């Protein structure tokens, strides 16, 4: 069996070659091997409220009191959040806040330390 990459759209492992194209039978996406290498280089750039670029593992500080949906508690301004992880979506920071637990934050409400 050949060692073809997974589909970049749906991550299916059932890709096959059709001439110089790679094809995914699950979502019908077609791409070239060069295109696959270029998309791996393009990473999501997430910036904090002041325009600083955030990376996985950074420490940030919350710049505004944030109400927690579904709870009566509030995350206070100045709360330090260590070892963040960047994810795709509206809330682009995944973290664990000590004394509170796992949380997702929007990058527009934090600043890099």
Overview of this protein structure:
It is built from 1 helix and 13 strands; from the N terminus they run E-E-E-H-E-E-E-E-E-E-E-E-E-E. It has one helix at 33-41; strands at 16-18, 21-23, 30-31, 46-47, 53-54, 60-62, 66-67, 74-75, 80-81, 85-86, 93-97, 101-105, 110-112. It has a 3-stranded antiparallel sheet with strand order 1-2-3. A 3-stranded antiparallel sheet has the order 9-6-13, with no helix packed on it. A 3-stranded antiparallel sheet has the order 10-11-12, with no helix packed on it. A hairpin with a 2-residue loop joins strand 1 and strand 2.
Structural key phrases:
113 residues, mainly beta, three-stranded antiparallel beta sheet, 1 helix, YjdM_N, YjdM, Zinc ribbon domain-containing protein YjdM, YjdM_C
H/I helix tally: 1
Chain oligomer state: single chain
User: How would you sum up the global shape?
Assistant: elongated
N-to-C order of helices and strands: EEEHEEEEEEEEEE
Q: Which blocks of ≥5 consecutive residues have pLDDT under 50?
A: none
Q: How much of the polypeptide forms β-strand, as a percent range?
A: 25-35%
Radius of gyration: 19 Å
Averaged pLDDT: 88
Compute the number of strand runs.
13
Largest sheet: 3 strands, antiparallel
What structural class should be given to the helix and strand makeup? mainly beta
Q: Helix amount, in percent?
A: under 10%
Strand order within the widest sheet? 1-2-3
Distance between the termini: 49 Å
Domain Protein YjdM N-terminal: 4-32
InterPro entries: YjdM, YjdM_C, YjdM_N
Protein name: Zinc ribbon domain-containing protein YjdM
Domain Protein YjdM C-terminal: 46-113
């Amino acid at each position: 069996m050949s060692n073809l990459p997974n589909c970049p759209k749906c991550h299916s492992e059932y890709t096959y070659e059709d001439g110089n194209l790679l094809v995914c039978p699950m979502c019908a996406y077609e791409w070239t091997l060069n295109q696959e290498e270029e998309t791996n280089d393009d990473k999501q750039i997430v910036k904090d409220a002041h325009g600083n670029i955030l990376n996985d593992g950074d420490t940030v500080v919350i710049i505004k009191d944030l109400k927690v949906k579904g709870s009566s508690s509030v995350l206070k301004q100045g709360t330090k959040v260590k070892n963040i992880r960047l994810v795709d979506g509206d809330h682009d920071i995944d973290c664990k806040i000590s004394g509170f637990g796992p949380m997702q934050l929007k990058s527009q409400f934090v600043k890099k330390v």
